[in-house]
Specification:
28% of the residues lie in helices and 29% in strands. It contains two helices and four strands. Helix 1 runs antiparallel to helix 2 (74-92).
């Protein structure tokens, strides 16, 4: 159910750490959002065309978009955002070197009535 998209400036030296970041986000958010880690999906989206601040090549960004099935309280969504930002920083901040990086997280509702899912299992 939880859907995460990690958009990041393609020029940042973070690619090798993104899989570990995604798995850590699944585990950390699952506890707060009362979700099963097996239901998480994370998309990694490098962005080639990003303009930040003065447009200089020393800028970068990493943005997490977290979508949870509707019905969770604002407090839970706030805590998910806080934990997601902390996890993001722990995994990536020491890798960005001299880049000025903007790290951000936004938590949204997935409308429970309009979200459909089917999972196949390996036999």
């Amino acid at each position: 159910m939880p859907q995460i998209e990690i958009e990041y400036s393609a020029n940042l030296p973070i690619v090798e750490q993104l899989r570990a970041l995604a798995i850590s986000l699944h585990r950390e958010i699952a506890v707060v959002a009362d979700a099963e880690p097996a239901s998480f999906k994370t998309r990694l989206s490098p962005l080639e065309n990003v303009v930040i601040a003065d447009g200089g090549p020393h800028h970068g960004m990493v943005h997490l978009d977290v979508r949870l099935l509707s019905g969770r309280s604002d407090d839970v969504k706030y805590e998910v955002g806080r934990i997601a930002l902390e996890t993001l920083r722990v995994h990536l901040e020491n890798l960005v070197g001299d880049y000025a990086v903007q790290f951000s997280v936004e938590v949204h509702d997935l409308d429970r009535a309009n979200y459909h899912k089917h999972v196949t299992t390996r036999g």
